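Readers of this paper often ask what the protein records in our data store actually look like. Such a record has a labelled line for the sequence and another for the backbone structure tokens. The tokens are whole numbers drawn from a learned vocabulary of local backbone shapes. We quote a single record here, exactly as it is kept in our systems:
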Amino acid sequence: GGGETRSGKEFVGCKAINPLHGRTSQVVTAPYVSMEEGTGIVHIAPGHGLEDFEVGLKWNLEVHSPVDESGRFDQSVGRTELIGKHVLKDANKAVLEVLGPDLIHHQSFKHSYPHCWRCKNPILFRATEQWFLRVDEKLRNKLLSEIDVVKWEPSYGIHRIKGMVQGRPDWCLSRQRHWGAPIAVLFCKKCQEPLSHPDFDKKVVDLIRTEGTNAWYAKSEKEILAGSSLSCSHCQGTEFEKEMDILDVWFDSGVSWHAVIEQHLFNPKPLSVMYLEGSDQHRGWFQTSLIPSVSLRNKAPYDVVMTHGFVVDGKGRKMSKSMGNVMLPQEIIHKYGADILRLWVAMSDYSEDVRLSQDILKHVIDIYRRSRNIFRFLLQNTSDFKKDEHIIPLEQLGEMDRWILVHFEELKSRVVEAYEKYQFHLVLSELNRFMAVSLSGFYLDALKDWLYCEAPDSPKRRSAQTAFF
């Protein structure tokens, strides 16, 4: 006969029975269910997926996660036949066997599934208790306000970090690893509430200051609380167990500013702090430093943030061993000298990815060689010049000497302006243009007769030497 069509919304609030263990489940709606794929009915597990977890929060569903750290079903799975079975390796077959006659149909089909980028193994999501730093609206607005105060170089950096802060979630601070800075918290064994007391905080600070962070792991709970009579403020329990999670390593580096600023608390000279890193750190260190600083001090930890691109090959491609386009700094220094590498860095516009190739280095070498020849010429022609005896007053200098000094003052103004804007490549560009055009291309060439043919102490020669000096 003909079937009846109904809207999915009509089923909201209905109950479905899970044949695996008889538990009833509530029917809800979610925007990610697609009619293009499957039946339009999707099983959700709030304890095993971000989208499902968010739906669970919206509908106040239980966040059930019956899987342990090794990826195996634990005691809470509800069927003894499944306990200890590996979810990704053994569970499918085991569940089918448990369902037995209640199973209407099953078939295999291919579908996309997330895998680890490093080891390529499938990923199992588990909802677990973690420590978070809440980025609520109040803190977010403070962060955005402080971002406006900071000087960002290049200027587009402010838009990158603002966009990331506006859309970022709470910061998960805890990690389940064997080594790192401990989250120094004791939980009451009776009610599992954390111990919160200033005396405990002081004990932990003193312990780590004198013995280092490893003391948290080396000492027992009783040793950590030795000499105190602290009890749980919720149930008055006196037995505690340690938190063994560690802090996110980004929190370690994110509070590094505190050690620097603390050293300058009594320095009358204000401390100006610049952060310098690659453009990827708008998502990383710049954010993880900003959040603790604004939370604790209501201000950013830095005055200036400068970001740079990455070194790529001459065609703009990422360097990789497989492509054979890697150029190591050690090899460049060995072949051309450290000054060539330094000059290439100074000449590069760091606001974009920086290109490096043999042809680019040849161009740098040409500029370096020309600059050295100019300096050699200036030094050779001032070897007999003594400032106290031979300097000529400004108003008595020759016309060409005054002309080059005027151009030099204009150059200095442009160079200082470029330095203040951290545009170092413009500094080199201005210097190279001045030396190639005004200095070498015209002024020095025109003075050669006076320098070589005039008497050593002639006014024209001393005037030129004064300008050189």
Notes: The first strand starts at residue 15 and ends at 17. The radius of gyration is 35 Å. The mean pLDDT is 88. The chain has 17 helices and 13 strands.
